Amino acid sequence: MSDLLSRKLGAPGFAAEIYVKELTQSTVGGHDLLQHRQKIQALSEETNQYLKKNVYQNYMQFIETAKEISYLESEMYQLSHLLTEQRSLIVTLLENSLLGDKAPGLRGVEKPETKAKFNAEIAVNLNVNNQEGRKRLTALLEKVEGCASVVESLTRILIHEGDMVELDPSDNCAIGRVRGFLLNDSFMIASWLPNKRGNMRYQYQALYELEGLAVINIRDLGPVKYAFKLMMFPDTRVLQCANSSDKKEWLEAFDLAKHFKIKKEVSPTLSAETKDNSYDESFNPFAEDESFSGFQNGSESSQEVAESIPDWVVEVADDMDVYVAQRDFEEAVSLAEKTRDFWDGASPSLINLHRDLKLKIDSRIRQLSEVLMNELRVSPDKSLQGGPRAASRAVLLLSRLGQASQACDLFLKHRSALLKHNLRQLKTEGATTLYIKRITSLFFPFVADTGREISRVFPKNKVCASAFVVWSRNEVGKFGNNFRKHVFTSGSTLTTVAECVALVRSHSEQLIEIGLDLTFYLENELRGQVERCLRDAREKLMESIKLRALEDKWRPVNLVNKSGIARFADDMSEIGIASIHSWVYDECWVALTSNTINFSKAYLTFLDDALKMPSADSNIFVDDILLDIFQAQLKHVENSFRSGKYKGEAKFISRNASFLLHTVLALAQLRVSEVRLHPCPSFAKLRSEFEWLAYDSQKITTTIKSPVSDQSFI
């Protein structure tokens, strides 16, 4: 039947409305429809399980495919970038000549007047010695927050800047207003600050080097106009200008900046080759000044050779891009550590000589740190299926990069999100005790595992240890709120509350194994609600004592037969009174009133629940409640004994008082001593105060007779 139903529902021309219409016509009554609904629901669950199994089986294939796609994308991007560089290099070679004139293919080519004027301005700004461009770049320190590292390079100048709107590459929706700054070797993006702080108007976002930046013109289609795309692996950004002229200026500025950058790299090579191949006719080997000059130049050349850097350092930036594209973060971090050791051991002159290369590598390391941090960041659209292993991997790598504090913060946020997700998976159906048992079994081991992971990844790091303690306290506070919402309700009994509190206290001791004791804080979170429950239970017991006192006739209980006596003995044995047979006479009579028996059961049950909940700080509060309840029952016995209404039952009343003092109260003292490891002085004082009521209780056993009338049944 299920196969036929699945084929029918999975048919190509299946229409839900027609199927429901036919189904309602063929079935009789709601029972058949309900059965059919259950079959469809079972089929849906079976299909879900089948899909999950397929996903699990093909999970590794999905991961490998994603890596291959990412790798191919990076290769295509690098290929496009290489073609662009080769084209620019060819154009530069054509424009340069050893004789100083233009190449034949470029002679006679003139640009429009406006473009020539703009290009002339860009060309002036591209001059490294241009003090105006340097001043404009230095002025960014007062306007852009967080751009100090950008201004450090002495050879970097500002070429062009302007306001734009950033669009989402997927749906072309506006993200926010940004400001672009084109430098002679890179492009910086800054966002607008919503609240200005003095002269600060922008917030630094990112810096992209022109070598790895591809600028793509976007055609005007629909609402997207005057926009261009920036591609830099692995990011893509779309920027929209205010009008077509601004867009044209930006594109021309990017082209000229790349053109002059390549020309600057090629020109020293050409000039060096020309100098080596030319013959200086004015050279006089006998001139003292010239020989001294030649010796000085030779020493400078030898110094440059000595200050050269290995080839692998030059290729670090490209290698790190490849590792990030392949998601081989371990190799990328190892390369970053190797590079850091190299710069630490390098001389100051070598660092100054290759300052731009060092800044480029530092930029790649910052991008690597950002990618690893994104692995830990939690967003509504991001899945948590990576699990704690992937998070620990990212945290360990960030710690190796010197980002321990940021990594610890993101790791704890990731653990909070994972804990919240796991708690939501638990269903609140069933008894409250079962639900609390499930969440405590999940929560406290989770916190303990987090502490062990923090100790493993950040050994001897006091800052991270302190952050974990603060995080644990916040999570315990959230757990306490959830616990109060489910346990301390109007329908919860004192026994249920006591069992839940005992579960929490026992599971919280797992944190002591990792050196974290939050028992006091947890008990402080629950103390107010626990004391309220105890006060409510006290009021109910006091009210029941008053009601039973009004109905108490001081008559023994008749259990009819031996089976009744056996059931009564089992009930009393459950509450801890095993010697109840000494109070039975004439086979089925008990020398106690139903009031005494019911009070004993209720009091000892309340005692067990009360001892499960409070901490050492609230022992006095619990002792006062236990004392008030027992004293109220003994007051009833004393009033009955002193009144003239029950003079004939004086010995029977004394017998009940003896049972309360010597059996019930003694058992209560024993249980308190076992839990607290010391006796309760209030119980001893209460016993000595009412001991006179049971002075001749041992003589009453043989004198009790079976009453003829007015019999009591329990």
TrEMBL record:
<dbReference type="Pfam" id="PF16528">
    <property type="entry name" value="Exo84_C"/>
</dbReference>
<keyword id="KW-0813">Transport</keyword>
<feature type="domain" description="PH">
    <location>
        <begin position="157"/>
        <end position="259"/>
    </location>
</feature>
<dbReference type="InterPro" id="IPR033961">
    <property type="entry name" value="Exo84"/>
</dbReference>
<comment type="similarity">
    <text>Belongs to the EXO84 family.</text>
</comment>
<dbReference type="GO" id="GO:0015031">
    <property type="term" value="P:protein transport"/>
</dbReference>
<dbReference type="InterPro" id="IPR016159">
    <property type="entry name" value="Cullin_repeat-like_dom_sf"/>
</dbReference>
<dbReference type="InterPro" id="IPR042560">
    <property type="entry name" value="Exo84_C_2"/>
</dbReference>
<dbReference type="GO" id="GO:0030426">
    <property type="term" value="C:growth cone"/>
</dbReference>
<dbReference type="Pfam" id="PF08700">
    <property type="entry name" value="VPS51_Exo84_N"/>
</dbReference>
<protein>
    <recommendedName>
        <fullName>Exocyst complex component 8</fullName>
    </recommendedName>
</protein>
<dbReference type="InterPro" id="IPR042561">
    <property type="entry name" value="Exo84_C_1"/>
</dbReference>
<comment type="function">
    <text>Component of the exocyst complex involved in the docking of exocytic vesicles with fusion sites on the plasma membrane.</text>
</comment>
<dbReference type="InterPro" id="IPR001849">
    <property type="entry name" value="PH_domain"/>
</dbReference>
<dbReference type="GO" id="GO:0048471">
    <property type="term" value="C:perinuclear region of cytoplasm"/>
</dbReference>
<keyword id="KW-0653">Protein transport</keyword>
<keyword id="KW-0268">Exocytosis</keyword>
<dbReference type="GO" id="GO:0006893">
    <property type="term" value="P:Golgi to plasma membrane transport"/>
</dbReference>
<dbReference type="GO" id="GO:0006887">
    <property type="term" value="P:exocytosis"/>
</dbReference>
<dbReference type="InterPro" id="IPR011993">
    <property type="entry name" value="PH-like_dom_sf"/>
</dbReference>
<dbReference type="GO" id="GO:0000145">
    <property type="term" value="C:exocyst"/>
</dbReference>
<dbReference type="InterPro" id="IPR032403">
    <property type="entry name" value="Exo84_C"/>
</dbReference>
